[in-house]
Design goal:
Helix content of chain B: 25-40%
Number of domains of chain B: 1
Number of helices of chain B: 7
Shape of chain B: globular
Structural class of chain A: alpha+beta
Strand content of chain A: 15-25%
Radius of gyration of chain A: 34 Å
Number of strands of chain A: 14
Order of helices and strands of chain B: EEEHEEHEHHHEHEHEE
Oligomer: heterodimer
Number of helices of chain A: 12
Order of helices and strands of chain A: HHEEEEHEEHEEHEEEHEEHEHHHHH
Strand order of the largest sheet of chain B: 6-7-8-3-9-10
Chain lengths: 386, 224
């Protein structure tokens, strides 16, 4: 028989012989690794959940042009400051985002006024695909607009008596456009009083090709605070101001960090307790088996060879405990996310590696002390039962 | 004349203030069966442990098969034991969760590679062909001792050490074990050093030495 196969055979026989102690060790390792798995899976699921929740609040950073200001006055009179409309260059913002390495979803907006029925109408040019991603609460009655179409805020539509299917003529400084209303939008916010059309269309109509008034960014709450992310982006955008717009994202970051810390602490306490338990049980096992160890040494087993047998036992227990812990931990994570977040957690297959790693580490670390005493054991004294 | 397999010169072993073995000069020729007799605490087992490389002497010289045991490291001694020595214990010391054949294979595992066919054959040689898959708890004292003998001879040792191997056996089993050892020695031609309390058992050897308080006090040849 191959030596390695015989070693496995020997280890399995030894573990099966001490069924009670083996089950106890397995239970301890499985419990510890299951908790680590559960907390890890819940933590990952929660991170996603928080990110989703934050997403519901829309953009959390906004880029606006720094307003050019000038004093207006004559002689000794000063009428104060006035500001001219200033725009951002869409291309430069895109380049800044790429250059900063910031992972963010974004939407570009151009605001302006167009003539409609002898009056001025506040309009906004947007990319509707971006809007659908960043502002999921937009409720469209009708359909999202296609080329040559527009959506009208619900209050605006009521004021002008506009309805889906109507065609509007809108005149700008550069051109006049005819747009069909594909639907009305209701958000409960300022959007209800605006008219939305495709960004390039408005840029052409206003004669502001490649210009935008504002860029709204949705930056993930993970990996560093929003303030830091805003500060990191700012140098790439001279002449613009990057600001945080949502307190909620900052709160989520703080909450996430605290929950993570709590989980790390709980896991550490559990792992230390489990490690002590493994040490205690392994010490008893080594003590009980001192004659067997003495015999192995008397038969010519070197200290390392005997150590290998006992390490293999600990390793096998570690692997088994890790696999059981993964299954148990996934079930616990499912229970926690269901009861606490009212959502189901993901099954994360690669976490079996983490669970086995934790269990293996515990089994080997917990066995370290007993292994050292095994290493030093004198065969004559142990065979005499001393 | 056969070369000496065991050579000691002024060999001593002390445990703190207690001197378990006082300077001993001993030579055992290859193929000899040496019986070691003495009361409890006379130094018999101490001598055996030193000859088997299980313990280190406090002084003197110790050469087994030309190897100076004092120069060997801890792991060097372990390698010496598996290559050179077979040991039979009074308490058998079989691994309780392994079958008879697996207990023999354990010695092969430490020596080289476990070979079940060879292990079976060794057990058949000691008359246990029908008990191969029984665990120690299912065997009688005599049978356990025969498993112990099979385990001791499986790696073809040059030196077989017996630490009162019949001490726990009844007369009939004792005679059976001694007869078996005699046959095996005749076939394999190994050297035997056997510690015993039993005068009758001692007479199976070619020569008997008597230890008293760690000192070799008498030596006699067995008349054939």
């Amino acid at each position: 028989m191959h030596k390695r196969l015989w070693l496995i055979h020997l280890v399995v026989r030894a573990l099966a012989h001490r069924r009670g102690r083996t089950l106890l060790l397995l239970a301890v390792l499985a419990m510890a690794s299951s908790l680590a798995t559960a907390l890890g899976v819940v933590s990952l699921s929660m991170k996603k959940r928080v990110a989703e929740e934050v997403r519901k609040y829309g953009a959390n950073l906004v880029v606006i042009p720094e307003t050019a200001k000038m004093n207006v006055g004559s002689g000794g009179l000063n009428f104060g400051e006035i500001s001219e409309p200033v725009y951002l260059e869409q291309r430069k913002v895109e380049e800044a985002l790429a250059g900063s390495g910031l992972k963010a979803d974004y939407s570009f907006h151009l605001q302006g006024a167009l003539r409609f029925r002898k009056g001025d109408l506040m309009v906004e040019g947007v990319d509707f695909a971006q809007v659908r991603r960043l502002f999921p609460w937009w409720q469209i009655k009708g359909a999202w607009p296609a080329a040559g179409e527009t959506v009208v805020g619900s209050d605006l539509a009521a004021r002008y008596g506009l309805k889906t299917g109507d065609t509007m003529e809108l005149a700008g400084p550069a051109q006049t456009v005819h747009l069909r209303i594909s639907g009305t939008v209701a958000t409960g916010g300022e959007e209800d009083n605006l008219l939305f059309l495709a960004l390039p269309e408005l840029q052409r109509t206003l004669g502001l090709d490649g210009r935008i008034s504002v860029a709204r960014l949705l930056v993930s709450a993970e990996g560093g605070s929003l303030t830091k992310k805003a500060a990191a982006l700012q140098p790439h955008l001279p002449g613009a101001k990057v600001s945080e717009v949502r307190q909620i994202a900052r709160t989520s970051e703080g909450l996430l960090a605290k929950v993570k810390l709590l989980m790390v602490l709980v896991t550490a306490v559990v792992l230390i307790s489990a490690g002590s338990s493994v040490t205690g049980t392994m010490s008893t096992t080594v003590l009980e088996r001192s004659k067997e160890i003495g015999l192995m040494k008397a038969m010519g087993g070197t200290r390392w060879e005997v150590l290998l047998i006992f390490s293999a036992e600990a390793a096998l227990l570690g692997v088994l405990g890790g696999v059981v812990g993964y299954l148990l931990g996934s079930a616990i994570a499912q229970f926690i996310t269901k009861t606490v977040f009212a959502a189901s957690s993901e099954i994360i297959p690669w976490f079996v590696g983490v669970s086995v790693g934790v269990s293996l580490f515990l089994a080997l670390l917990g066995s370290l002390g007993p292994m050292i005493s095994l290493f030093k054991l004198d065969p004559v004294r142990s065979l005499r039962g001393e | 004349m056969a070369a000496n397999i065991v050579e000691t010169g002024g060999l001593t072993r002390s445990y703190g203030d207690i001197c378990a073995l006082k300077p001993l000069d001993l030579r055992v020729p290859e193929g000899e069966w040496l019986s070691v007799m003495g009361h409890s605490g006379s130094g018999k087992s101490t001598l055996l442990n030193l000859l088997g490389g299980l313990d280190r002497p406090s002084g003197g010289s110790l050469r087994i098969g030309g190897e100076d045991l004092l120069l060997l490291s801890e792991d060097g001694l372990a390698r010496f034991r598996r290559e050179f020595v077979g040991i039979i214990f009074q308490q058998h010391h079989l691994v309780p969760y392994l079958t008879a054949v697996e207990n023999v294979m354990l010695a092969q595992y430490f020596h080289s590679v476990p070979d079940e066919a060879e292990a079976r054959s060794a057990l058949e040689r000691v008359g246990l062909g029908h008990r191969l898959n029984n665990r120690p708890g299912e065997l009688s004292g005599g049978e356990q001792q025969r498993v112990c003998i099979a385990r001791a001879i499986i790696n073809s040792p040059k030196l077989l050490l017996g630490d009162e191997p019949t001490g726990n056996l009844d007369h009939q089993s004792t005679m059976m074990v001694m007869e078996l050892l005699k046959e095996l020695r005749a076939e394999d031609n190994f050297t035997v050093v056997m510690v015993t309390h039993n005068q009758e058992v001692a007479t199976w050897g070619d020569r008997t030495i008597y230890l008293d308080d760690g000192v070799l006090v008498r030596e006699e040849r067995t008349e054939s």
